[in-house]
Amino acid sequence: MTVRALYLCEGSSDEGLRFHIEAIAAEVGRELFVTVPDLNRLPNKPGHSVTNKLRAAQQLSDGGHAYDLVVIHRDSDGHPVGHRRREITEAVAQVSPHLAHVPVIPVRMLEAWLVLDHAAIREVAGNPNGKVVLNLPKAARVESVADPKALLKQALAVASEEKGRSLKKLQARFSENRARLLQMLDREGPVKQLASWQSFTSDLQEALSNA
């Protein structure tokens, strides 16, 4: 039986996580179909709260009964992970109380998952054979970085070895490059060492075993 999952992410460049969600399901022998709703189709934008996003997704799915599971991405952004988990749990209980849910809570933000793969950064920066030192943190320290997004932007710039107008063009494509890095994320690579990734995958596997 195919499990139907709703994926609510923080921004369009986070949509690539859907492929990892489906792949993790396949690894445990479950077929999972993930829907990422375009909440911008609604006349009134839902804002960033989990509750509002769930309600908006419900409007787009004729009452919200089309799904067996909802996966909700919410960066910790300096808040304790437990705070974000409660926020997600309470929102689901309020809007769709019978819907199983899986929280995805990168610390501090999803970019912390993306700065660990030097080869992918060099490839996306357009300089796959570059040797310049990127000075990126190891997995043990990456979740304590105050601004992983700024760190990732800097890493792409350094890896590209571009200057002037070419560098500006690269930096203007950050959202696109970030999305590509997410799709390229190696689930068996350094990200596997992070507590936030481990929680996401174990919660997903548990939810699928009960679906």
Instruction: Say how many strands there are.
Output: 4
Number of helices: 10
How big is the Rg?
18 Å
Quaternary class = single chain
Distance between the termini: 9 Å
Point out poorly predicted stretches: none
Strand content: 5-15%
Mean pLDDT over all positions: 94
Q: Shape from CA axes?
A: globular
Describe the structure.
This protein has 211 residues and is an alpha/beta fold. Helix content is 48%, strand content 9%. The chain has 10 helices and 4 strands. The protein has helices at 17-27, 50-60, 81-95, 111-114, 118-124, 139-142, 148-160, 164-172, 174-184, 195-210; strands spanning 3-8, 32-35, 69-73, 100-104. Helix 1 (17-27) links the parallel strand 1 (3-8) and strand 2 (32-35). The longest helix is centred in the C-terminal third of the chain and has 16 residues, at 195-210.
In short:
The chain has 211 residues and is of the alpha/beta class.
Which structural traits does this protein have?
alpha/beta; 48% helix; 10 helices; 211 residues; globular
Write the layout of secondary structure elements.
Elements: E1 3-8, H1 17-27, E2 32-35, H2 50-60, E3 69-73, H3 81-95, E4 100-104, H4 111-114, H5 118-124, H6 139-142, H7 148-160, H8 164-172, H9 174-184, H10 195-210
Parallel strand pairs: 1-2, 1-3, 3-4
